[in-house]
């Protein structure tokens, strides 16, 4: 199974590595993706287990969402949302959990190999993912939409010799991970990079929290503060969704059309979104949703 193979290959590399020079190893696990086909032994762990269920299965209201509604419609279709029942979600989430367990076991073998070589207490370990999984939230499967289950990902940082665990609730972005690695290696920051080192969270000198986190995909972007999330069409510079995360943490109610929220959306557009896109976005290929 591919994720188990990746873990075994990485563990063997550590077991056989010869040399005293510092090393950097990137281990990429392809899963967990559909069809969530983990080995039977992993799936059996979750037989009869009550897995977590979606916070909300309310389908997205696409009215007033502009071209972003096209992306939402595409992923509702991809998800075959009419058949996304509680039983279907429960079965999918058990299979997904089995996939995650395969990766968890593989990481355990890598850590054990580091410990066997006597390197664990001199090694930083950073674990994260490139995207989340809707898993039935809002009747959706897969990724690419800008709801929290697809955008939020794990980020675990273990310093050499470990330490007391803590949970940091501050907003961070993926670009903070390479900035942190460069800081660990005492390398200079990348010029003009918006990445911010997270090293302070590990050594007790907490950095100033980000006031804003930005996620982008398919020509759309989500701008999230500690209270609001604004989804925008990048090229049209138009808002598509606005969620009040204090009142609606499940992102069920788009507030863009509500008079009391119009000024909030416009302030975010004026102070954050338009300045952010003063430099046009760089994309590897055009978006089919924003031609």
Keywords:
291 residues; globular; 2 domains; alpha+beta; 6 strands; Alkaline Phosphatase, subunit A; two-stranded antiparallel ribbon; Arylsulfatase, C-terminal domain
What pattern of helices and strands is seen along the backbone? HHHHEHEHHEEEEH
Radius of gyration: 21 Å
Overall CATH architecture of the largest domain: 3-Layer(aba) Sandwich
User: What is the approximate shape?
Assistant: globular
Low-confidence stretches: none
Task: Outline the structure in words.
With about 290 residues, the chain is of the alpha+beta class. The protein has 2 domains: about 1-50 and about 65-170, Alkaline Phosphatase, subunit A, CATH 3.40.720; about 210-290, Arylsulfatase, C-terminal domain. About 35% of the residues lie in helices and about 10% in strands. The chain is built from 8 helices and 6 strands, in the order H-H-H-H-E-H-E-H-H-E-E-E-E-H. It has helices at about 1-15, 40-45, 70-80, 85-115, 150, 175-185, 200-205, 260-275; strands at about 125-130, 155-160, 215, 220-225, 230-235, 240-245. The strands form 2 sheets. Strands 3-4-5-6 form a 4-stranded antiparallel β-sheet, covered by helices on one side. A two-stranded antiparallel ribbon has the order 1-2. Strand 3 and strand 4 (about 220-225) form a beta hairpin. Helix 1 packs parallel to helix 4. It is globular, with a radius of gyration of 21 Å.
């Amino acid at each position: 199974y591919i994720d188990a193979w990746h873990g075994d290959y990485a563990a063997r590399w550590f077991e056989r590595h010869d040399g005293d020079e510092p090393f950097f190893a990137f281990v990429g696990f392809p899963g967990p993706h559909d069809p969530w086909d983990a080995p039977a032994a992993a799936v059996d762990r979750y037989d009869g287990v009550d897995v977590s269920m979606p916070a909300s299965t309310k389908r997205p209201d696409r009215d007033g969402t502009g071209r972003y509604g096209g992306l939402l419609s595409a992923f509702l279709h991809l998800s075959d949302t009419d058949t996304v029942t509680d039983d279907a979600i429960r079965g999918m989430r058990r299979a997904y959990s089995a996939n995650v367990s395969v990766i968890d076991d593989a990481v355990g073998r890598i850590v054990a190999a580091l410990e066997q070589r006597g390197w664990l207490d001199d090694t930083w370990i950073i674990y994260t993912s490139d995207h989340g999984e809707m898993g039935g939230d809002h009747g959706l499967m897969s990724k690419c939409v800008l709801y929290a289950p697809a955008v939020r990902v794990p980020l675990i940082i273990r310093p050499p010799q470990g330490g007391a665990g803590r949970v940091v609730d501050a907003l961070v972005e993926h670009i903070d991970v390479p900035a942190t690695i460069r800081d660990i290696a005492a390398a200079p920051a990348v010029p003009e990079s918006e990445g911010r080192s997270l090293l302070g969270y590990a050594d007790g000198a907490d950095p100033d929290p980000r006031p804003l986190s930005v996620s982008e995909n398919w020509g759309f972007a989500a701008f999230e503060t500690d209270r609001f999330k604004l989804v925008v069409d990048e090229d049209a510079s138009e808002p598509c969704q606005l969620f009040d995360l204090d009142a609606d943490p499940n992102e069920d109610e788009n507030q863009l059309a509500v008079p009391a929220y119009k000024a909030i959306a416009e302030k975010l557009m004026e102070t954050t979104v338009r300045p952010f896109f003063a430099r046009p976005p760089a994309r590897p290929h055009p978006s089919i949703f924003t031609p």
